[in-house]
From TrEMBL:
<feature type="transmembrane region" description="Helical">
    <location>
        <begin position="44"/>
        <end position="68"/>
    </location>
</feature>
<feature type="transmembrane region" description="Helical">
    <location>
        <begin position="12"/>
        <end position="38"/>
    </location>
</feature>
<protein>
    <submittedName>
        <fullName>Uncharacterized protein</fullName>
    </submittedName>
</protein>
<feature type="transmembrane region" description="Helical">
    <location>
        <begin position="80"/>
        <end position="103"/>
    </location>
</feature>
<keyword id="KW-0472">Membrane</keyword>
<keyword id="KW-1133">Transmembrane helix</keyword>
<keyword id="KW-0812">Transmembrane</keyword>
Length: 109
């Protein structure tokens, strides 16, 4: 018996791109958190890179998921890329808020 459901690889390129970009973004977010205490000149570009790659990852994952849904393809890699990209952006945003809070409490002393 043949399987009548056709599986397609549509959207897989954008899904893999999203996964790769989100992985680089989460590494960059970690480097931002670590290197900002050493030198803000080094840490700030890592944070900007993490936010940019995180947004691009979320956009490509969303497009890849819509293409994969239309062609009855797997959504797993797109979902992983989407969530890791969101987490990378969230790490940088929370880190910036913590730094601003710490700077504010230091100025009040």
């Amino acid at each position: 018996m043949e399987n009548s459901i056709k599986k397609s690889s549509s959207g897989q390129v954008l899904s893999v791109l999203s996964f790769i970009l989100s992985t680089i973004a989460i590494i960059s977010a970690g480097l931002c958190c670590v290197t900002t205490f050493i030198s803000p000149i080094i840490g700030i570009p890592f944070g900007l890179l993490a936010v940019f790659l995180g947004f691009v990852s979320v956009i490509s994952a969303t497009i890849g998921m819509s293409q994969a849904r239309k062609s009855n393809s797997s959504l797993l890699i797109s979902q992983i890329g989407l969530w890791v990209g969101i987490i990378a952006v969230a790490i940088v945003v929370v880190f910036i808020l913590v730094i601003f809070y710490w700077m504010g409490t230091q100025m009040l002393r």
